[in-house]
From TrEMBL:
Protein name: WAP-type 'four-disulfide core
All residue ranges annotated as the WAP domain in the record: 100-147
Alphabetical GO biological process terms: axon extension; embryo development ending in birth or egg hatching; embryonic morphogenesis; epidermis morphogenesis; nematode male tail tip morphogenesis; neuron differentiation; neuron migration
Provenance organism: Caenorhabditis elegans
This protein's record includes keyword Signal: yes
UniProt keywords, alphabetically: Signal
Gene name in the database record: kal-1
Occurrences of domain Fibronectin type-III (ranges): 156-261, 566-658
Length: 700
């Protein structure tokens, strides 16, 4: 016994469901004895003893260890520290230890055991499944069924029946308890452990392992909305008391609810991810989705794609827009859905290409797409059912590939043409790479003599360290092997969020290039831009266009974007070795009016703090003559009609040797508080505010 106790302490204890249920039955038995003289609760105990145990502090403390798994008895007792009844909880730990060591019954005698075969498959009864015991035979220990049983144990239930109720997906399971002694009939702590297993076919060998569904103190159980359509279920039950259990009944006949399994709906959140062009000039496109809700386990996903047209893509996207607009009107939604089914046909085997991906996948790459093309992509989930394989509804998305000349193939040399950076909120645009003479290559193909309408190809903005996009005008008549110089003018026309002072940041940013393409960096999220390209030598107009950037959350990126830092209320842009530009956002507050901003600049090398006072409509500041290679801290505090308001702060680092390829933006450090909003109205109050600011500046 000492050896068994030592093994229990050192070994990992993982009691099976019968041991756990026996522990719970012991707790119910103790509560039943404790309340046997309480006539008011006797009738309630008969029918609701499990619920009363949850509400009783002592019984609840007793049953807490029964539901857990512990490495040793010390860990079990440690869990009792926070218990309302620590002593009862620890007593339950000792009881759990005892019933784990030894189950009811006696080991059978084993004959013909070879003296040369020694094994130790178990050490204690609790390591054996269900009712089996750990029995010794010669030099071996193995799990065997007991040869005798205790008469105190409840009979094994029999005649299990399963019946579907009127409400679909709701069933009642009944069983016969067998002949009980008078003492067993008067016991309120008799429990029935109900388990199930399921499969797509009525074949026991293809079903899952047994799983516990519920524990009841009555000879029946009602399961509501637990069974899924299209699955065959088998049930079994075991009668358990504080004395133990004789084990489980024979399984019920396979049962399937009348509701048939439906094919899964379309995958959720179907969207396009990053795209890239390979050396052959073809495009690869990532497609993402989330699993749809399904009655049956998803077997796999099938992705199909085929060439389409711009008009078909536009029509489908317009239908989806209308559907989204009208989805709250039930009758309009039904009408719209029926119209969509008639108008939209789908791939229907026209030059279809397909790929099957496993059920755990939530993305796939479509390869070999031609440039300047439109593709229709369909994806659906497949499930196995008792009636065969079911194919789910199709999710649809369109891919529009760009000109392969507007992107850099992965296995080619990286882009070395001119790169333009648009600083946030500033009026500067810098070229990061030296200008390069135009050469006859794939970037500037020979054009036929007949004029063609110029087209500005703009790649979808993407995030790679910062927000950027590539543009080219390779099909313009001015784009020839002859050396030319172009003027690329970019202007931010509108920003919807997180971009302060966009009303004052509308100047044209001009850069000169000697190639028919350019890379724009340092763009702002959720803004609109206008681009104009002219021939610098002749002044002739070449091409123009507009593009928009998405919000940070919607922008494609090879790595996750920390949008919380990118869109902080204050941002600083290092523009050279000794200069920086900072700007901040407005914050609405109906209780206070911002009449100015107090900006503090500090660094470790200067004990003095640079203080600046700005008008409420001016939410930016520029610093010159900064020391290279130091960390600067900027704090912006709002000045309101009620005094000093909230503060935001950030840090930026100047570089000792900042070249044109290493301009960095520091999107903001710790946010202390948000600034308040300016009223933005010019009145007598504004004149008074200006006078107040001048006076305050002198005081500082």
């Amino acid at each position: 016994m000492i050896l068994l106790l030592l093994l229990f302490i050192l070994g990992s204890v993982s009691p099976d469901e019968l041991i756990s249920t026996r522990c719970q039955a012991q707790c119910l038995h103790l509560m039943d004895q404790r309340l046997q003289n309480n006539m008011e609760l006797r009738k309630t105990l008969k029918h609701h003893i499990i619920q009363l145990c949850k509400e009783d502090a002592t019984c609840s403390a007793c049953s807490a260890p029964c539901r857990e798994q512990f490495d040793d008895i010390k860990a079990c007792k440690k869990s009792c520290v926070a218990s309302d009844d620590r002593e009862t909880c620890e007593d339950s730990c000792h009881y759990l230890q005892r019933i784990y060591q030894e189950k009811p019954g006696a080991c059978p005698s084993v004959s013909n055991q070879s003296n040369y075969e020694c094994s130790a498959l178990c050490q204690m009864d609790g390591e054996c499944p269900e009712t089996q015991k750990c029995c010794s035979s010669g030099c071996s220990r193995q799990c065997l069924k007991p040869r005798s049983s205790d008469i105190k144990l409840l009979p094994i239930p029999r005649n299990i029946s399963v019946q579907e109720r009127k409400r679909k997906r709701s069933i009642i399971i009944r069983w016969a308890t067998g002949r009980l002694s008078k003492a067993q009939q008067n016991e309120n702590a008799n429990l029935f452990l109900v388990q199930w297993r399921w499969g797509l076919h009525a074949d026991e060998s293809a079903m899952t392992e047994w799983q516990t569904v519920t524990v009841r103190n009555k000879p029946y159980a009602i399961l509501k909305h637990l069974l899924s359509p299209g699955r065959f279920y088998e049930f079994r039950t075991a009668a358990v008391s504080q004395e133990g259990s004789l084990g489980f009944s024979s399984p019920s006949k396979p049962f399937k609810i009348s509701k048939e399994a439906k094919a899964p709906p379309p995958p959720k959140d179907l969207s396009l991810g990053a795209s890239k062009v390979v050396a052959s000039g073809l495009w690869n496109q990532m497609v993402h989705w989330n699993p749809p809700p399904s009655d049956l386990p998803i077997k796999n996903y099938q992705i199909s794609w085929a060439s389409s047209t711009k008009s078909e893509a536009d029509a489908f996207e317009e239908q989806m827009r209308k559907k989204s607009t009208l989805e709250f009107a039930a009758h309009e939604k039904r009408s719209l859905q029926s119209d969509d089914d008639e108008e939209f046909i789908g791939i229907q085997e026209r030059d279809r290409q397909s790929v099957v991906v496993p059920s755990h996948a939530t993305s796939s790459e479509i390869t070999g797409l031609f440039p300047n093309s439109v593709y229709l992509v369909e994806i659906h989930a497949s499930v196995d059912s008792s009636d065969g394989e079911l194919h789910g509804e199709k999710g649809v998305v369109f891919i529009r590939t760009a000109d392969s000349l507007s992107a850099v193939p992965e296995d080619r040399e990286p882009y070395t043409g001119p790169k333009a950076r648009i600083a946030h909120g500033s009026e500067e645009l810098k070229i990061e790479a030296s200008l390069k003479d135009l050469k006859t290559s794939s970037h500037a193909p020979n054009r036929p003599n007949s004029p063609q309408p110029a087209h500005l190809e703009i790649q979808t903005p993407f995030f790679d360290t910062e927000l950027q996009t590539q543009l080219n005008w390779l099909n313009a008549a001015h784009c020839t092997p002859a050396k030319r110089q172009f003027s690329v003018k970019v202007r931010k026309t509108l920003c919807r969020e997180y971009q302060p002072n966009h009303h004052s940041d509308t100047r044209w940013h001009d850069l000169r290039v000697t190639d028919c393409s350019a890379l724009l960096k340092g763009l702002s999220f959720d803004c609109d831009y206008k681009v104009e390209v002219t021939d610098t030598l002749t002044g002739d107009f070449v091409v123009d266009g507009v593009f928009s950037t998405d919000t940070c959350d919607q922008t494609s990126s090879l790595t996750p974007i920390d949008c919380s830092s990118v869109t902080t209320p204050i941002q600083c842009q290092v523009t050279s070795e000794s200069s920086a530009h900072c700007h901040w956002t407005r914050h609405h507050d109906a209780m206070q009016t911002v009449i100015g901003y107090r900006i503090l600049l500090s660094s470790p090398i200067n004990h003095d703090t640079n203080t600046t006072i700005n008008q409420p409509q001016l939410r930016e500041v520029r610093y010159e003559n900064l020391a290279p290679g130091y960390v600067y801290t900027v704090e912006v505090q709002s000045i309101t009609n009620k005094g000093l308001g909230r503060t935001v702060s950030t840090q930026f680092v100047t570089h000792p040797d900042l070249d044109s390829n290493a301009i960095q933006r520091f999107p903001g450090g710790e946010i202390i508080e948000l600034p308040l909003e300016s009223s933005g109205k010019l009145s007598i109050f504004s004149i008074f505010s200006s006078f107040f600011l001048v006076l305050l500046l002198r005081l500082l």
